[in-house]
Amino acid sequence: MPNPMRRTVARTRKQGQRGLAAAMLACAATAAAAKPPGAEAVMIRMIACDGEGVRMEVYLPLSVDRHMRGGQSVIGYYALDLTDVNKGKPLEPVRVTLSTDEKTVTVDQYLRGLPPTRIPVAGGTVDFDQRFAKHAKCGPFQSQDPNFGN
C-alpha cells in the first residue's frame, strides 16, 4: 500500500517549485518592464555650500535650470556630503522655492521637519542643520547668476 505521507511531501515539493518558478518569472517580467527615468529625472546642481568639514548641494530638475520664476516651488534633492566623517553622501528630497522678489531661495527639508533654510540668491552664510551644516557659505543660485562660472 502506498504511503500517503510520501504523496503529500511530493505534492508540496511540486507546489513549492511551481511557486518559485512563478516568482522568478514575475521578477524577470518586472525587470524587463522597468523603464529608465525620463528627462524630468535629470538633475543639475543649483546651489553649493561649504560648512565646517561638510559640503551641501541642492539639485533641481534640469527643466527648471534658468527658467525658475519668482514664487515657483520645485521638488529637488539636497545632498549632505559627510564623506570625510565616513558617513557617505545621502540625498533627500526638498522643496525649493524662489521668492517672489527673486532675492531668496528657500530650501525646505520637509521630510526631517527642519526649519526652512533661506539662502540669498547672490549667496551667503546660512544654517541648514544644527548637527552638521551650520555656518555654511553658499555660492550664488546658479540659475539666477548669468555670470556664474565665467
Word description of this protein:
- With 150 residues, the chain is an alpha+beta fold.
- Helices cover 20% and strands 31% of the residues.
- It has one helix at 4-33, and strands at 43-50, 55-61, 73-81, 91-98, 104-108, 117-120, 124-126, 136-138.
- The longest helix is centred in the first third of the chain and has 30 residues, at 4-33.
- The protein is globular.
- The termini are far apart.
Helix content: 10-25%
Structural class of the secondary structure composition?
A: alpha+beta
Ends distance: 91 Å
Q: Are there runs of 5+ residues with pLDDT below 50, and where? A: none
Mean pLDDT: 77
Biggest sheet descriptor: 8 strands, antiparallel
Q: What fraction of the residues are assigned to beta strands by DSSP?
A: 25-35%
What is the count of DSSP helices, taking H or I runs of 4+ residues?
1
Radius of gyration: 25 Å
Strand line-up of the largest beta sheet:
6-5-4-3-2-1-8-7
List the helices and strands in order.
HEEEEEEEE
Question: How would the global form be characterised?
Answer: globular
